[in-house]
């Protein structure tokens, strides 16, 4: 029998996989209440207070190659051994769909804590929320006082963008500095100082949301992390304690939730089921992660990779060959990277970086305003570079991605040499 492919989730990972498969002549069914209307999330929080285009749509039409099922998938059950199908998707409508291949691309949903002083507080995690805030700002006319709960990327992007547009902004955070769980000390401390000088106010060591004063802010935005959207498989959800899916850390009073563990080929432990994008926690390969890498470049790369894997398997069958098992096929190996524009500040990460790294190497331009932090596989001089953080130096971020993706990855000893030309090395 032929392949019956279902993709659950019409975000960037799912949409990309569906488009790639369809264009190659492979029919696919895309399950999502909003299938067909996908957009790029990062600009939502970066351009709330200006008139620039703040999202990039990825519109997809249903056609003879792509079937939209605009319902919510509630569970999967696996077929018994010997069945021609791998399993069945159960929809909220009560309908079912059998599959030979299933890609979980359900993405994440934002945590939504209640702020007693601001019952209308909301995150900026979808297009409707972003449009509501943009309309509110446009109708206000006068400068606003913006409150932000949370110290991650989204919260700092909102606060810094507000200040850059002439508003005031106060960030309430549980710890002593923002971006503590995202960036290493040199980068996050530099951003902290730059944002404070620009006018962003920080209230540190917030013990409870009840301590946030009422009547101060005209607009209040929450940013306390997100969690993968999970669908039970044979009644089981991912509940390992080995990693926390929420990159912001767990929220007081809420149970942590987890992503699906996948191997270097993005396969789950369940035959015929893969996971891509924000709901996938990669445990093997060159870039194993301690939490889902929630960013658009990785989601798009996952979608393309899985489409190519499925198409390659079909090509093997057509040629009369035995299809490659996941263990024999090429693993996913694209360099994961992330970008965050915070007002005038631009920060990038590439590869594997750690907020707790304390033996890194820092290199800056002559002004000291632009710099990179290099992370290594170990403390030895011959330890290879595994990740790079870049502040306000886009050309060097591009160089970092080229280096990490290439065959000439430098060592700690090389980068400790002041005469080592990293940009020139990236062109080898």
UniProtKB/TrEMBL annotation:
Keyword Flavoprotein included in the entry's annotation: yes
Quote the SUPFAM superfamilies the UniProt record gives: FAD/NAD(P)-binding domain, FAD/NAD-linked reductases, dimerisation (C-terminal) domain
- Keywords in UniProt for this one? FAD, Flavoprotein, Oxidoreductase
Q: Which cofactor does it need?
A: FAD
Asked if the record carries the keyword Transmembrane, the reply is no
InterPro entries xref list: FAD-oxidoreductase/Apoptosis, FAD/NAD-bd_sf, FAD/NAD-binding_dom, FAD/NAD-linked_Rdtase_dimer_sf, Reductase_C
Domain (FAD/NAD(P)-binding) spans 4-284
Q: Where is this region: Disordered?
A: 316-335
| Residue span, Reductase C-terminal domain | 337-424
What PANTHER family does the database record attribute to this sequence? APOPTOSIS-INDUCING FACTOR 1, RIESKE DOMAIN-CONTAINING PROTEIN-RELATED
What is the protein name for this chain? FAD-dependent oxidoreductase
* Organism field: Brevibacterium ammoniilyticum
């Amino acid at each position: 029998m032929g392949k019956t492919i279902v993709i659950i989730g019409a975000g960037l990972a799912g949409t990309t996989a569906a488009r790639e498969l369809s264009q190659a002549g492979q029919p696919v069914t895309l399950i999502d209440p909003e299938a067909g209307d996908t957009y790029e999330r990062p600009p939502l929080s970066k351009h709330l207070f200006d008139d620039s285009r703040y999202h990039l749509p990825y519109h997809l039409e249903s056609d003879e190659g792509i079937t939209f099922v605009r319902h919510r998938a509630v569970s999967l059950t696996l077929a018994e051994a010997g069945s021609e199908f791998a399993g069945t998707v159960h929809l909220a409508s009560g309908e079912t769909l059998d599959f030979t291949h299933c890609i979980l691309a359900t993405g994440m949903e934002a945590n939504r804590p209640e702020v007693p002083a601001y019952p209308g507080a909301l995150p900026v995690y979808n297009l409707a929320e972003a449009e509501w805030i943009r309309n509110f700002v446009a109708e206000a006319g006068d400068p606003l006082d913006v409150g932000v709960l949370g110290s991650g990327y989204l919260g700092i992007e909102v606060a810094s963008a507000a200040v850059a547009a002439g508003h005031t902004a106060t960030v309430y955070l549980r710890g002593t500095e923002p971006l503590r769980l995202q960036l290493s000390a040199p980068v996050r401390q530099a951003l902290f100082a730059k944002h404070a000088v620009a006018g962003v106010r920080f209230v540190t060591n917030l013990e409870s949301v009840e301590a946030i004063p009422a009547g101060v802010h005209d607009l209040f935005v929450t940013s306390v992390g997100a969690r993968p959207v999970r669908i039970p498989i044979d009644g089981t959800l991912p509940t390992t304690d080995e990693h926390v899916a929420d990159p912001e850390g767990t929220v007081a009073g809420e149970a942590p939730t987890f992503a699906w563990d996948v191997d270097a080929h993005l396969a789950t432990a369940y035959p015929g089921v893969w996971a891509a994008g924000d709901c996938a926690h990669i445990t093997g390969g060159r870039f194993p992660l301690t939490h889902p890498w929630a960013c658009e470049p990785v989601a798009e790369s996952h979608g393309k990779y899985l489409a190519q894997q499925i198409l390659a398997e079909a090509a093997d069958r057509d040629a009369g060959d035995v299809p490659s098992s996941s263990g024999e096929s090429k693993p996913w190996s694209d360099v994961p990277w992330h970008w965050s524009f915070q007002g005038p500040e631009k920060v990038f990460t590439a590869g594997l970086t750690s907020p707790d790294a304390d033996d890194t190497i820092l290199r800056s331009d002559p002004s000291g305003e632009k710099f990179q932090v290099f992370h290594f596989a170990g403390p030895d001089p011959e330890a290879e570079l595994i990740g790079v953080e870049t502040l306000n130096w886009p050309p060097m971020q591009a160089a970092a991605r080229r280096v990490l993706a290439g065959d000439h990855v430098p060592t700690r000893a090389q980068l400790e040499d002041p005469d080592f030309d990293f940009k020139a090395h990236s062109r080898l």
